[in-house]
Design goal:
Elements (H helix, E strand, L loop, with lengths): L3 H12 L13 E6 L2 E7 L8 H8 L10 E6 L11 H7 L4 E6 L9 H8 L3 E4 L3 H7 L1 H9 L3 E8 L4 E3 L12 H13 L2 E5 H6 L15 E5 L18 E5 L4 E3 L2 E5 L5 H11 L4 E4 L3 H9 L5 E6 L8 E2 L6 E8 L2 E7 L2
Parallel strand pairs: 3-4, 4-5, 6-13, 6-14, 8-9, 8-13, 9-10, 10-12
Antiparallel strand pairs: 1-2, 1-3, 7-15, 11-12, 14-17, 16-17
Helix pairs in contact: 3-4
């Protein structure tokens, strides 16, 4: 007999199919089982569309079986009216007697209310099956709602002798392979925003778009305290929205938004402003100074570090980071490591 974990794994496999079209909603998959047989399944396919539970229930051909079925879902069914009606109400309406949930939805409008509503209606509710895995796939969503800031990904590439850029760099410099570059563009399409410091914007003049991948460009973020950057840089074009954090002016010009902040607590104030803009995730792609400032504040959730075959012998040192490596992969001539805080 298959256990709850078996069906929750299927929910998780369905859930990730929606990424990143689900944003800013969480990834959710749902399975309906009757007498050991899967009779319905679905996932939240796009933001604003039907939730996973609705799609799974709609997929059941013989609706009379629902009253003796178990519904599996990796995230607590919602209890509030958003773009769609509450899923907990639908489960109650269909008289489904048992619900197995991966993890509680800590978003304030849900946060146990869906579970409570279903229990009061006499439904057996089991919570916490594959809880860690269920939280992990929605790490951006949970970080945003629980920590009131975006999920922070640090990203850089270094030479085999530990440098991220040549000494006295005055022009763009790309260290990794073409395959790694394509992967980076895919990452950009998956996240809400991407940040660089003034020097990176000035020397590399990056576009920070997804030219090598089919997806949406992230919101671009640049730190330019004294507004020293030229108006002709690529970040100021109309390929995407750009936020310019500075301490001089608050103004919008086309797709460029100048946001005035206090630089005494620069990182905290930037993250606070991004939270207000409903930005759930950000890639930090700056130079050593920008990256190290986030590391020093212990304000990061994940680091993605490429080590290349290049040797620079001198230059800008790679950031120092201490954490736990959870994943490694060889991409052409580059080694990718994914690191999380210990």
């Amino acid at each position: 007999m298959k256990n709850h974990e078996f069906y929750l794994k299927k929910c998780l496999n369905l859930a990730v199919k929606s990424f990143p079209k689900n944003k800013p909603n969480p990834m959710v998959g749902c399975i309906i089982v009757c007498n050991g047989k899967i009779i319905g399944e679905g996932y939240h396919e796009n933001y604003g569309s039907h939730h996973a539970e609705v799609n799974a229930i709609n997929s059941v051909k013989d609706k009379s079986l629902l009253s003796k079925s178990t519904i599996y879902v990796n995230l607590e069914p919602c209890s509030h009216f958003g773009k769609t009606p509450p899923c907990s109400d639908l489960i109650i309406e269909k008289k489904i007697p048992r619900v197995v949930i991966g993890c509680i939805d800590t978003f304030s409008k849900v946060s146990g209310k869906g579970i409570e509503k279903m229990k009061k209606s006499g439904i057996e509710v089991i919570v916490g099956v594959l809880e860690k895995e269920s939280r992990d796939i929605n790490k951006r969503f949970f970080t945003f709602h629980e920590k009131k800031r975006p999920y922070i990904i640090l990203k850089w590439a270094k030479s085999s002798d530990g440098y991220i850029a040549p000494k006295n760099q005055k022009e763009p410099f790309w260290m990794t392979s073409k395959d790694s570059k394509k992967l980076v563009h895919k990452w950009r399409a998956q996240e809400d925003s991407i940040l660089v410091g003034r020097k990176t914007a000035e020397i590399d003049n990056p576009k920070l778009t997804v030219r090598e991948f089919d997806g949406e460009n992230p919101i671009r973020v640049v730190i330019d305290k004294d507004l020293q950057l030229s108006n002709n840089i690529n970040l100021y074009n109309d390929d995407s929205i750009t936020f310019i954090f500075n301490e001089i002016k608050e103004k919008s010009v086309g797709s460029n938004f100048f946001i005035k902040i206090n630089f005494i607590n620069m990182i905290d104030n930037i993250l606070s402003e991004l939270y207000k803009q409903n930005i759930q995730s950000i890639i930090i792609e700056g130079g050593n100074k920008t990256l190290q400032s986030f590391i020093k504040k212990d304000m990061w959730d994940e680091a993605r570090v490429f080590t290349t075959n290049n040797q620079l012998e001198d230059g800008v040192k790679s950031p120092k980071i201490y954490g736990k490596t959870i994943y490694t992969e060889q991409i052409d001539s580059d080694k990718l490591e994914i690191i999380i805080p210990r």
